[in-house]
């Protein structure tokens, strides 16, 4: 392993200690066959269609009061309904909360996660400390475990906080969530799998949330190393000289004008001996646009331009945390697109690792420049069976699809189908845009290709396709999905960690493991 650190990077690291080892959550989650002493709040999961809500041990008075209250609230157990009853008669709790789960057999993971997220927001607004979540009204054993784990996962996802830059952070949510389930082993096992996903999402959010001057290429790589190595992931970091020596002039060029030069992060989880699956993520740690400078307020969101790379780091972390039987190599080209007397100029020509010469139609189309070498490196050094890249690549994607769908591009129908399936499972939705007729749009008069063309999202895709050559490949454009200005569903405000859940599920679907 080669780890290169510049003096400036070391200095900055000393000023702003890396929080890689920090614990992301202060809450604790247990699964048990019965309740625990000290419980102050009881949450009952209620399927729709019950005539009366009651748990074993409740007296007639309790059952009567609770059901009168539920009637008054028009609670019928449909999914997402929630009623709180303070000081329930005959019970030793401050509050009783009923959570509607609809028809348990039909409740999908994303909805269960959202129910958990909404519950955690509510709980955080109370003084609840020890919460029993009782799932015993869900009679089907499979649903009992599955929904408990998914709701617990939703609680976790929403409770992440990015507070490392606050001198006096607010207290984090720190409740004990004590689940009463029918099969402790099964629920715990499913929760552990989702907890590994959550840890991957938190890592990606953390990397995304780092401001440009904190999350520069060497710092991003170091953070990934610190968080992945303990899980048995082989991490290799190429510094700027090694990037140049390997011929990756396209990756190098983007940050040649920055004090923070290019790095290439490789994170290899070898959970099987299969041919590797390559994930390549755009790690542009800040996008000023370069000499084609961004002149609108959109520049304020450009710390999020590393979120494709963050998603790859997070997915590799999740898969390693799950000990998944997959061979996956994450490759993250890292750059900082900024200006100085040494920066690339519009119209310059760069030579990529595979020898392709690239005319710079715009210095602001930097994502494809760094991904070109990331994709080539993955292909050349790891001979993967498939390459998926993910990037905040184009504003045109946002114009076309908005923020609820990522655009995907691929000539391989089985990749498109498996990615759509992963998208539905995780609610990280994807929509296919065409590649076929656009091959000529990046032709250049003076070089082999150029980095701009129209339509914009397709130009980015066909550019990347050139570097995937004949390896099966799919491109994900996740522009405008990296950051939220206010909390929503399972996401607190800030970095979403978008792509981690999608890629984690997709790798397992593609590799045929669960
Ligand atoms: N990082 C941006 C894309 C982006 C824009 C992401 C808005 C999230 C929100 C990318 O590097 C970029 O600047 N793309 C240009 C390409 C153009 C110059 C060909 C764009 O889409 O405007
Ligand atoms: Mn740009
Ligand atoms: Zn960019």
Characterize the structure shown.
InterPro entries: Leucine_aapep/pepB (IPR011356), Macro_dom-like (IPR043472), Peptidase_M17_C (IPR000819), Peptidase_M17_N (IPR008283). Residues 362-369 form the Cytosol aminopeptidase domain. It holds the Pfam family Peptidase_M17_N. GO terms for molecular function: manganese ion binding; metalloaminopeptidase activity. Residues 1-22 form the signal peptide. The protein is an alpha/beta fold. The chain has 2 domains: 34-197, Leucine Aminopeptidase, subunit E, domain 1, CATH 3.40.220.10; 212-511, Zn peptidases (Aminopeptidase), CATH 3.40.630.10. The chain contains 14 helices and 20 strands. The strands form 4 sheets. Strands 7, 8, 9, 10, 11, 14, 15, 16 and 18 form a 9-stranded mixed sheet that branches. Strands 1-6-5-2-4-3 form a 6-stranded mixed sheet, with helices on both faces. Strands 12-13-17 form a 3-stranded mixed sheet. Strand 5 (130-134), helix 4 (141-159) and strand 6 (176-180) form a beta-alpha-beta unit. Helix 4 runs parallel beside helix 5 and helix 10 (367-382) runs parallel beside helix 13. The longest helix is centred in the middle third of the chain and has 26 residues, at 184-209. Mean pLDDT is 96; it is low at 4-20. The structure holds ligand BES, manganese (II) ion (MN) and zinc ion.
């Amino acid at each position: 392993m080669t780890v290169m650190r510049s003096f400036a990077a070391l200095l900055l690291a000393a000023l702003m200690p890396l929080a890689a080892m920090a614990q992301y959550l202060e809450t604790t989650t247990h699964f048990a066959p019965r309740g625990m002493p000290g419980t102050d709040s009881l949450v009952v999961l209620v399927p729709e269609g019950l005539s009366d809500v009651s748990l074993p041990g409740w007296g007639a008075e309790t059952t009567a009061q609770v059901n009168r209250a539920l009637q008054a609230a028009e609670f019928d157990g449909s999914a997402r309904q929630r009623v709180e009853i303070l000081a329930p008669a005959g019970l030793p709790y401050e509050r009783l909360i009923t959570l509607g789960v609809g028809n348990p057999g039909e409740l999908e993971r994303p909805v269960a996660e959202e129910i958990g997220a909404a519950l955690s927001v509510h709980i955080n607004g109370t003084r609840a400390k020890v919460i029993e979540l009782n799932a015993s009204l869900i009679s089907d054993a499979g649903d009992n475990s599955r929904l408990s784990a998914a709701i617990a996962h939703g609680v976790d996802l929403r409770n992440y906080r990015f507070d490392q830059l606050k001198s006096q952070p607010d207290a984090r949510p720190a409740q004990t969530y004590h689940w009463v389930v029918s099969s402790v082993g099964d629920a715990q096992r499913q929760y552990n799998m989702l907890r590994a996903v959550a840890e991957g999402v938190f890592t990606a959010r953390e990397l995304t949330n780092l401001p440009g001057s904190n999350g520069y290429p060497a710092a991003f790589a170091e953070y990934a190393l610190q968080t992945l190595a303990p899980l048995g992931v082989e991490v290799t970091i190429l510094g700027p000289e090694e990037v140049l020596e390997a011929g990756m002039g396209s990756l190098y060029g983007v940050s040649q004008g920055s004090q923070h030069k290019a790095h290439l992060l490789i994170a290899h989880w070898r959970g099987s001996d299969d041919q590797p699956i390559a994930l390549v993520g755009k790690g542009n740690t800040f996008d000023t646009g370069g000499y084609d400078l961004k002149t609108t307020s959109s520049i304020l969101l450009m710390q999020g331009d590393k979120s494709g790379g963050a998603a790859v780091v997070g997915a590799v972390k999740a898969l390693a945390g799950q000990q998944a039987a997959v061979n996956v190599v994450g490759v993250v080209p890292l750059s900082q697109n900024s200006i100085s007397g040494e920066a690339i100029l519009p119209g310059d020509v760069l030579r990529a690792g595979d020898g392709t010469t690239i005319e710079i139609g715009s210095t602001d189309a930097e994502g494809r420049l760094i991904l070109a070498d990331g994709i080539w490196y993955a292909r050349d050094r790891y001979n993967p069976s498939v390459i998926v890249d993910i990037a905040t690549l184009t504003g045109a994607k946002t114009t076309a699809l908005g923020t609820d769908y990522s655009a995907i591009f691929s000539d391989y129908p089985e990749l498109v189908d498996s990615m759509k399936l992963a998208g539905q499972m995780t609610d990280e939705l994807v929509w296919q845009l065409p590649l076929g007729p656009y091959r000529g749009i990046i032709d250049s008069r003076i070089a082999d290709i150029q980095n701009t063309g129209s339509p914009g999202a397709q130009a980015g895709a066909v550019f990347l396709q050139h570097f995937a050559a004949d390896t099966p490949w799919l491109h994900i454009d996740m522009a405008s999905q990296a950051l939220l200005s206010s909390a929503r569903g399972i996401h607190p405000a800030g970095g979403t960690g978008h792509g981690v859940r999608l890629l984690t599920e997709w790798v397992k679907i593609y590799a045929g493991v669960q």
